[in-house]
Amino acid sequence: MNSVFAHGVGVDILHLPRLLSLLSRRPVSKLTDRILTATELAEFQRLSSIKPPNHTHALSNPAIRFLAARWTAKEAAYKASANLIPTTKEQWMGWKNFEILKGSRGEPLLTIRDGGGEKIGNGQVSISHDGDYVIAIVMVQH
Amino acid sequence: MFRTALRQSSRLLTSSMRPAVFTGVRVLPSMSVAPQMVFGGRFYSSGGPPSKTDIEGRIVELLKGFDKITDPSKISTTSHFSNDLGLDSLDTVEVVMAIEEEFSVEIPDKEADAIQSVGQAVDYIAAQPGAV
């Protein structure tokens, strides 16, 4: 293995009712605008337009599950990137530096970008749902 | 439309599951609509920006509305959200949203992520000319 590649692993779990509870108190856009990238936001809106959350049980609603999976995967990605996160404010990284989109086979793929939009890493993501819980595990290479 | 729909559905769905989470924060929107009812004469005293003491007091009050903080006596101007108050990242995002509403400011992503303690929130708000 080439030693220039650094690896990291991270995991996160989310109790969906907590997310629903938060969403019920404020406009949904307050959260989605804060954590989703433009591409993720477009996908969230697409899913919302296909199946508005009041047409299905919220826990099985695609838009809600998409958002929950993004939150959980971004948290896991942040943890996996511990040695990648700069300490200076100028190089700060947040939710939108981690983008999780589906690959050609539907698999979630992580792209990490710096503040200028330059790709600085990527990673594999595995997400699992069971009832009220979503869990994500992320392995990054950078 | 989506917002209303979601709010309705989550209301239905979360009514049974909500008790686990900080339902107390739901009083906050009314606080930001009519803060003078909660905070007495403080808001009538001047038209200028809130003082640092005011900001501290209002943020501490706001945190008391979070049910997740089981011991409100722990909340002080030096409290760290996760280390001292046991809040996780999702809670912290919500705290920052509540602070935005309380002081009628929009905190950019970068600054919002940097707010991890009462002191950092106070310093940020105190530096905002638009804060009310």
UniProtKB/TrEMBL annotation, chain A:
UniProt-recorded name of the protein: 4'-phosphopantetheinyl transferase domain-containing protein
Start and end residues of each 4'-phosphopantetheinyl transferase domain: 8-138
GO biological process: fatty acid biosynthetic process
SUPFAM superfamilies xrefs: 4'-phosphopantetheinyl transferase
GO MF terms, alphabetically ordered: holo-[acyl-carrier-protein] synthase activity; magnesium ion binding
Pfam family, one: ACPS
Domain of life: Eukaryota
Alphabetically ordered keywords of this record: Fatty acid biosynthesis, Fatty acid metabolism, Lipid biosynthesis, Lipid metabolism, Magnesium, Metal-binding, Transferase
InterPro entries on file: 4-PPantetheinyl_Trfase_dom (IPR008278), 4-PPantetheinyl_Trfase_dom_sf (IPR037143), ACPS (IPR002582), Ppantetheine-prot_Trfase_dom (IPR004568)
Automatic annotation (TrEMBL), chain B:
SUPFAM superfamilies assigned: ACP-like
Recorded family membership: Belongs to the acyl carrier protein (ACP) family.
Classification via Gene3D superfamilies: ACP-like
Domain spans labelled Carrier: 53-129
Annotated source species: Arthrobotrys oligospora (strain ATCC 24927 / CBS 115.81 / DSM 1491) (Nematode-trapping fungus)
Major place of residence: mitochondrion
PROSITE patterns: CARRIER, PHOSPHOPANTETHEINE
Protein name (database record): Acyl carrier protein
